[in-house]
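Exam review. A common question shows you a sequence with its structure tokens and asks you to describe the fold in words. Practice with the pair below. Do the first one on your own.
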Amino acid sequence: MFSHFNMQEIKFEPSAMCDAIDANITFSESQIGQGDIICYQKSSKSLSHHAYPSVQIFFNRIHDLKAVVPGEQMKILALEEEVARLKRQSDLQTEKANIECQRFKCERDNAVRQLNELQDQNPQIFLEFPITNLLQATQNFSDLCKVGDTEYGCVYKGIIHDTTVAIKLSRSDTLFQQEVSILRQGRHPNIVNCIGKCSEVSALVYEWLPKGNLQDHIVCAHGSPPLSWQIRTQIIGEICSALLFLHSREPHALVHGDLRPCNILVDANFRSKICNFGMLTLFLQPGDHQPALTARLPYLEPELLTTGELTPLSDVYSLGVIILCLLTGLPPLIIAKKVSEALVNNSLHTLIDKSAGNWPYVQSQAVSRHWS
């Protein structure tokens, strides 16, 4: 009966295939031929749509559908071709965008490389201040303006061009030239910023950091409140960042050599910046006067006292002592022994500086074990 139809054009879902039709309900026996394939509905009561009253009407319906389907298929094919075209266009645009992105990335990398090369070839340039600016800023280097006095030099607080600055008079021209040479290596957010210099009197002009040095905050000098554990951990991270910058310099690593809380300054937002780095190298050279070791001894790597050789590991040792000081608040001379004993006895909690707040104990224990 359906031999003249191309059966590949009509597809049925498995759920649509049913048992043979009941001839007594829908069709007469004369209308059913041998081997017919016909649509079946079990009962007119269960039908959700109109039941075909005859096979001929069913045939007509199929014929009508076959006349419509090719047109619909053409629409589908056209839509599929349009989708494919848009996909090809999208893929092409994506490929072009990736090529452009790669080109911009290469240009950026080249620009960064050229900038680094220029910075290496052209050291940082400092402003050259006339001595009159310094004399006026410090009231002729009056003791009233003096805020520090170390082996490195005297430090004065002053104002130049309406900006508060720190002015350091170096002890000697040799020290001055050494520090200038190191500062020319580049800037870092956690290294005190040098604004300029006055070669006439071997003076350096630095940014002013109003919160003083870290040592005063550890011992709560001048009535300053204890630092919170959040600020202490922030400072530890900042010191690590500064040391990483110094130690990664090429062709030779820069070593601070005198890393102590008094050489770590704090700005108004409690951001820490190290200063006086690289100076101890000069002190340890033959022919130069030796620095006072009493205050430095707890922070000095033991091997340094026998070999006199400063390495990046010398700074790492000093950093460890500073971390333990921030963690416990104990004096640096006894801190390593005390912390080691506490770790063995599982009593570190008794050493933690509670004035800093509720330290994360697990992290504190891990840090102490690593650095003690």
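Now try the second one, then compare your answer with the model answer below.
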Amino acid sequence: MVLGQGIFYSLACMLEFFSFIPRRYLVHRGGFRGQCGVESVNVYYAYALEKCMQEGVLAPKKISLTNFAMDSLNSYSSKNQLHGIRLMHSFLQWQPTRAQLLSKLTTSTNTVARIIRMLDWTNPKDTTIRLYAANVTSELAKDLRVVAFPGTMQTVSALLDADSSPKRGNPLLLEETQTCSTQQPLVDKKNSYIIRCWQRIKELRSLPKEQPSTNHDLLPALAMSIIESLAGDQENCVEISKAANLIPKIIGFTRFVRAMSTMDTEAEQKVMLKSSLKVLQRLTGIGGEIGITLRYKISKHPFLLRNLAEILKDNITSQESRKLVAGILRNIAIDGNTRQDIGRIQLIITRLKQTFLNEENPICG
């Protein structure tokens, strides 16, 4: 009896040891990065093993990562929820897994509702989950109908009030490690089978570098991306128009130098400026009755034209931002009264002329 238990224990240890290779292969093949990716794959491995042990011969032949991510998302464990939302974010970056996940989510409104609810998790311990949920929602927003998920616009609007985001890694450290070159051996060993095998093992043992966070990982910037994508549907535009204080918040980010800015860096502020301009251009270009309503609400904001004039006035404003401003002005100028208001601001007219002249006659450096 003791001998049998010892044999089974030894076999289990051997299986655990050799499972390292397929697990690490899955990390590389699945596009997972850093120690976080390894942890997610290890949790998936334990999940699949438990399923097989519980269900025995009735266990499914394939236990997909997609199902694991969705189950984890709906669990009561914050650790599992983090693994689930992080896996979903990874899947949406790769076309084959993206298509599979989107197909699953179209028939799982409960999971989508769960992701949207995560946007409202303001507890400091949930900040990373909230950030990943915002990234995932920005990917789903193009096909999302917010009327099916009451409270979505209020939740997205609350993201615009967030003033910081967690960093998923040290960008400077990652950049430094990525630029280090691997020394090549002086002797040509390309034909050496042993060397090739050893290099392959080293690749499996190494971890793909975790993506550095960027200024586009700001929660307010992700909220802008979500709104811009949602605006592709007229019913969503109705909900955007109804959302209390949403349009004033968006316009607030067009103030180039904000006295009470909560942004940490000038680069972050520029990201928010461009994001808000893109959203406003999208909203002012909507057709139909809801388009008229949105243009009216936007154009009647007391600081809109002043903010746009300041953007055009600033010499360091990018050409892309100037074009976005021109697009917004063109869209709201459809209304005769607004057109007259624009015409009264000489600075706007002068700067618009300069913008178009520079576009037609670029200065060669």
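Model answer, second protein: The chain has a mean pLDDT of 77. Residues 34-55 form the longest helix (22 residues). Full marks require stating both points clearly.
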